[in-house]
Amino acid sequence: MADDDGRRVALVSGGSRGIGRATVLRLAREGFDTSFCYRSEESAAREVVDLATGYGGRCLAVAADVTDGDAVRGWLAETESTLGPVEVAVTCAGITRDQPLVMMSDQEWDSVLSTNLTGVFEVCRAAAFAMMKRRRGSVVTLSSVAGVHGNASQTNYSASKAGIIGFSKALAKEVGRFGIRVNTVAPGLIDTDMIQAMPERSRKKLLDAVPLGRFGRAEEVADLIAYLASDRAAYVTASVFEIHGGITI
Ligand code: NDP
Prior knowledge:
By secondary structure, the protein is α/β, with parallel strands linked by helices. It has a single domain (8-243), classed as Rossmann fold (3-Layer(aba) Sandwich), CATH 3.40.50.720. It has helices at residues 18-29, 42-53, 69-82, 106-134, 145-149, 155-175, 193-196, 200-208, 218-229; strands spanning 8-13, 32-38, 59-63, 86-91, 137-142, 180-187, 240-243. It has a seven-stranded parallel sheet, with helices on both faces. Helix 1 (18-29) packs parallel to helix 2 (42-53), helix 1 packs across helix 9 (218-229) and helix 3 (69-82) runs parallel beside helix 4 (106-134). The longest helix is centred in the middle third of the chain and has 29 residues, at 106-134. It is globular. The chain starts with 7 loop residues before the first strand and ends in a 6-residue tail after the last strand. It binds NADPH dihydro-nicotinamide-adenine-dinucleotide phosphate (NDP).
């Protein structure tokens, strides 16, 4: 629902870096007012706000951990009171804690499942309720090729990302009659801090499996997200879109 100036409001979790950052900037460029949450990096968040407002809209950054339901509801309430009704929600917040299964600690399992899967539950539950009241909305969740195909040393991450696909398809069936669409983007290797944190040898090995011969750019993923968020995708829901340069894992 557009406000009086014809502007629309988009919510992005994990918008301070990487794909979330590129998504905030892309949506701001398309005329959205944007609100994003982040966990810790305040200076990175401030930079995104400066860049997004450079496109002429408003941008709000809120420190909110997606695993904390109260914090997520507070972020949504602050967004709606400051910017207006949320029409688009994109869940980008995510982490990795890679280990072969037999070496994986409870903490590595729990933190990935709670940030990646419970975090999506918290953001979508809050946003869907707000959208249902207005009978309009678009939700885009971020999965991964690891969630579609599985990836060695990432049982925790793959499980969380496969869970997001099931969650999103179920939610799409639940809220379609309220005019809300839910779609999932499953990227391959995208050049962000998440990939830079991998050992050089693992990155090189993974890159060898990409027929297009390079990492993807966060902006290329944001482009797909912006399409799914927009009315150009008005008949697209309950779908998973892979964007991975042909990678086979
Ligand atoms: P980055 O590590 O570059 O950025 C992650 C973002 O999420 C940061 O803004 C970070 O904020 C935020 N974040 C992390 N944990 C929380 C939390 N608990 N609460 C709130 N915000 C949080 O990740 P990418 O951009 O690479 O990844 C974005 C999404 O895309 C993730 O879900 C990831 O799994 C998925 N993806 C990424 C791929 C890739 O190759 N890069 C491939 C496939 C999927 P802060 O800095 O404050 O911690």
